[in-house]
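Format notes (please read before filing issues)

Several people have asked whether sequences and structure tokens are stored in separate files. They are not. Every record keeps both together, in the order shown below: the sequence lines, then the token lines. Line labels are part of the format and must not be stripped during preprocessing.
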Amino acid sequence: MYPTGALIVNLRPNTSPASYKHLTVCIKPFKDSAGANIYLEKTGELKLLVRDGERSPSKVYCFGYDQGGLFVEATPQQDISRKITGFQYELMSRGIASDLHTVSAPCRPCSDTEVLLAVCTSDFVIRGSIQDVTNEAEEQESVIHVGINKLYRQKSKVFQLTGESGNWRGQIKTLLECGVRPGDGDFLFTGRMHFGEARLGCAPRFKDFQRMYKEAKDKGLNPCEIGPD
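Then the structure lines:
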């Protein structure tokens, strides 16, 4: 609050130092963050990450853990109004980070192998249908409103029972460019939690998942057990 001077922020995960090189750091500034620039700093060299006054409420900035720490420097202010600089951060393995921030073909359908692995490793796995899609042009994202027929797994309680009907519902975010639209039929939705939001991973039609799962199980190749019904 009322930032002055500068701070160096070094994030230290509760893991072995040998694993640091495999980590990615992601930060997400608060939507009303103001009063300071945020840089990536290593051995005295600064690279601007977030400029004071930028207004991209959903933008996430990621970098390799070995690229440096954060240097938060207050900017000169012309008034005495309250300024608060703040951001969320996450540390994750580079494999997970690449899943969330795929540069090449982010909307590409998953292969059978990718779907079966996603079922085993995702933060959430649900069977459901697309009730509605809200496009957020400014944030370049789509919000998928999902009606859930079966909840296989969730790490955070983003999918909730609603009303007297006792139906599970929730929202999943994906890129606007993927062009998701409401439609008939059930899907198997998988994905990861990122800054408290469910992000879409693999999402085959449920009947296709049933086929993949049966074929892999018959060959003894399914990486984990899950009831496909």
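For reference, the curators noted about this record: Helices lie at 94-100, 112-121, 206-218. Residues 13 and 223 are 29 Å apart (CA to CA).
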